Amino acid sequence: MKKFILSGLFILAFSTFVSAQEEKSKTQKAHHHSEKKEGEKGKKQESQVLLADSIDPMCKMSVAKGSKITVNHKGKQYGFCSETCKERFLKGTKETSRH
Prior knowledge:
single chain; alpha+beta; two-stranded antiparallel sheet; 2 helices; 4 strands; 49% helix; RNR-like; TRASH_dom; signal; YHS domain-containing protein
């Protein structure tokens, strides 16, 4: 009986370990594929999620940490309340970079 219980515990522990390793691998692959390399200095780059609470630079609304409506520009991450504000920001940065 003890052997049966021990082998069951071993199988459970091993399957938990394998599942954790697979999840870790998936997370690393997803993170690797979601990164966008910044080619030129100052080039705009979209990001996955907002890393800290922020203020939308266009309309001054609060944007909560974790928002997916973000842009990295000149080494700084900006969060937006909506795609509209994000697009206005991107349009503005294109216009100012032409001058």
